[in-house]
Write a structure and sequence with these properties.
The chain contains 20 helices and eleven strands. By secondary structure, it is α/β, with parallel strands linked by helices. It is globular.
Length: 478
């Protein structure tokens, strides 16, 4: 037995030279009308997608807890029927345009983007109710993986990506998502060198002059859930500055300090963050980790998009806001803050506990702020419309007339699906105490799904949407 073990270990180390990560290929030129990006995808989509309504789902991080909670929301949207712009009726889930996914939430987002309705036949068995954490640990302890894990080109997250392909994604790439007809999936990660967000979309890959279409979905999920110290970063090659990349005109306008409309501060910040990618000689590689470190809700991309379109519109430019009546943003936040007894004992908490809390508290507060910023945008638009429509508003004298006349007319529905909305204290305590891991019991998964559906259906903003859009929830046959 020992001889066999030694032989297997020797063979593994001999094969270590073959261990390497997938290398994202370069592009020679940016093609703004091609690739996996929202505007081009929206024009190609078919089916019952209401063009007067933009529907965005944001799935937070939190391991299987987040994946199951997000899945519960999809189950309700699948049963929600609404009136469409063409006079027909269809399911609200078919009108979803964008899903952002972070860490655990990225698995549900990517799997739905890949499989569509087929997801509801197998996702529970293939991922939600599978002990993924045990499988990852087994891979780490398997001597056949030790040589690869010791390679500087293949770390624990590459091993995780291999597992995710085996159990869920089946080797699919972003080209497979592009060929589908579902919503665009924006998987969020964190560039560990700068702390900035990096999304697995072609506009982000344009920055590094690379082709997203050949990248495997499993690597995107592995990068978004690569918790520092537990899993290694996912590495991308940076070819920035070699493909003639230019910032879109609307982004340059939004960030221009001389813009007669208010420049979007977030657009300015993003331009500053992404400039560094253009110097690939100084930064030939990107190391990506858990997206929750930069934005655990995946909301920053949504906020920036709304503010950037608003800035362009206020300046007289054309944006998708021109035709929209409704913008629906469903924030699916599985944040949990388990109680501690630290303040009841004299002895301070241990180093590991402090480390976990020190990284979690800023993320939690940052997540809260992004939801509030979305509500601020909604309030600002309502105020601008009220001022414009007021009898006291003098179009000939008011210096703000250009901005107010072009104020966005779309109603914004900010629907918060989080544990805090639960009315039953016992139910809240149960879900709030669930760990951030990739291993939950079947009962825990089912209760998360049920709670997400309950919270969504009881949301005042969701009920307002149902009423305004002539929608209804179809009773389950069961």
């Amino acid at each position: 037995m020992m001889l066999r073990f030694a032989l297997l270990t020797f063979v593994a180390f001999v094969l270590a030279g073959c261990a390497t990560r997938q290398v994202n290929p370069p592009i020679a030129e940016v093609h703004p009308d091609e690739g996996y990006r929202f505007l081009t995808r929206d024009a190609k989509r078919t089916g019952n997608n209401a063009k007067d309504t933009l529907v965005v789902l944001t799935f937070s991080g939190g391991g299987t807890r987040a994946a199951a909670f997000a899945y519960g929301v999809l189950e309700v949207l699948r049963k929600t029927e609404m009136s469409l712009a063409n006079g027909n009726r269809g399911r609200l889930i078919d009108g979803v345009d964008i899903i952002t996914g972070v860490s655990g939430g990225s698995f549900t987002a990517l799997a739905y983007g890949l499989y569509g309705d087929k997801l509801f036949d197998s996702y529970e068995k293939r991922f939600l109710k599978r002990n993924v954490e045990s499988a990852l640990l087994h891979g780490t302890l398997n001597p056949m993986n030790w040589a690869e894990l010791s390679s500087d080109k293949w770390g624990r997250s590459e091993m995780a990506a291999k597992l995710y392909d085996e159990i869920l994604f089946e080797g699919a790439t972003f080209a497979d998502l592009e060929r589908g007809s579902g919503p665009i999936i924006m998987v969020q990660t964190t560039d560990i060198s700068t702390g900035s967000r990096f999304a697995f979309t072609q506009p982000s890959f344009d920055l590094i002059c690379s082709d997203l279409s050949q990248v495997r979905l499993a690597r995107a999920a592995a990068a978004s859930s690569a918790v520092p110290l537990v899993l290694s970063p996912i590495t991308l090659n940076n070819y920035g500055g070699t493909c003639g990349f230019k910032y879109p005109s609307w982004l340059r306008l939004a960030a221009d300090p001389e813009n007669p409309a208010r420049p979007a501060a977030r657009a300015i910040k993003r331009m500053e963050e992404t400039l560094a990618y253009q110097d690939s000689k100084a930064r030939p590689y990107l190391h990506l980790v858990d997206g929750g470190l930069a934005d655990n809700l995946g909301m920053r991309a949504v906020l920036e998009t709304l503010e950037e379109m608003e800035a362009v519109r206020l300046g007289g430019g054309k944006t998708p806001l021109d035709n929209l009546k409704r913008i629906v943003v469903v924030v699916v936040n599985s944040l949990s803050v388990p109680k501690t007894n630290w303040d009841q004992v004299e002895r301070p908490p241990g180093n590991i506990d402090i480390l976990i809390k020190a990284t979690g508290v800023p993320i939690d507060r940052y997540s809260y702020e992004t939801v509030e910023l979305l509500r601020d945008i909604m309030a600002r638009w309502e105020l601008m419309r009220a001022m414009r429509d007021s009898p006291a508003f003098d179009r000939s004298k008011d210096s703000r007339v250009a901005g107010l006349v072009n104020a966005p007319t779309a109603k914004l529905y900010a629907i918060d699906v989080s544990f805090a909305a639960l009315k039953d204290p016992a139910q809240f305590d149960y879900l709030n105490d669930l760990p951030t891991s990739f291993s939950l019991t079947d009962e825990q998964v089912d209760r998360l799904r049920a709670a997400a559906g309950q919270i969504l259906l009881e949301s005042p903003d969701f009920q307002r949407l149902l009423n305004d859009a002539g929608a209804r929830v179809i009773p389950s046959p069961n």
